[in-house]
């Protein structure tokens, strides 16, 4: 995350003046995605837009706040379209998971290579 933040800031100087801001916001976005889309979290306990904005107060340069419109856009996009790993999506599909069914962990590890993705050797060949 630290290297991502440094590189992103170098390539997008007009967005953040500090890599620390990109670093903190990056983790905040991951937490938001998890909080909004984890089925273990009850809907009434999920992070609200106000909470997301409050959690990100003072993370801009010199302790300033990021623009509310900017944070609102991030919140709305994550709420509408969660990010996932292809391997997780494949595992859910293989297990027959959908919005109406609970995740079936009994068959999840039967094919560990398929669940955890391709091996390092497979990736080298790709």
What does this structure look like?
With 126 residues, this protein is mostly helical. It is built from seven helices and no strands. Helix 1 packs across helix 2 and helix 2 packs parallel to helix 4. The protein starts with a helix and ends with a helix. Mean pLDDT is 80; it is low at 99-126.
Give me the number of helical elements. 7
Q: Report the average pLDDT across residues.
A: 80
Radius of gyration: 18 Å
Q: What form results from the Cα inertia axes?
A: globular
Helix content: 55-70%
Brief write-up:
With 126 residues, the chain is mostly helical. Helices cover 56% and strands 0% of the residues. α1 crosses α2 and α2 runs parallel beside α4.
What distinguishing features does this structure have?
mainly alpha
Write the layout of secondary structure elements.
Blueprint: H1 2-11, H2 19-37, H3 49-55, H4 68-80, H5 86-95, H6 112-116, H7 120-125
Helix pairs in contact: 1-2, 2-4
């Amino acid at each position: 995350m630290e290297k991502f933040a440094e590189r992103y800031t170098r390539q997008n100087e007009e967005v953040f003046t500090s890599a620390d801001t990109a670093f903190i916001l990056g983790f905040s976005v991951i937490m938001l995605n998890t909080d909004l889309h984890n089925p273990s979290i009850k809907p009434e306990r999920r992070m609200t837009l106000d909470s997301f904005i409050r959690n990100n107060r003072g993370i801009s340069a010199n302790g300033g706040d990021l623009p509310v419109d900017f944070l609102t856009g991030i919140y709305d996009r994550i709420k509408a379209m969660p990010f996932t790993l292809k391997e997780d999506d494949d595992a859910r599909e293989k297990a027959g998971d959908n919005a109406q069914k609970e995740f079936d962990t009994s068959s999840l590890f039967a094919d560990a290579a398929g669940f955890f993705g391709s091996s390092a050797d497979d990736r080298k060949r790709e």
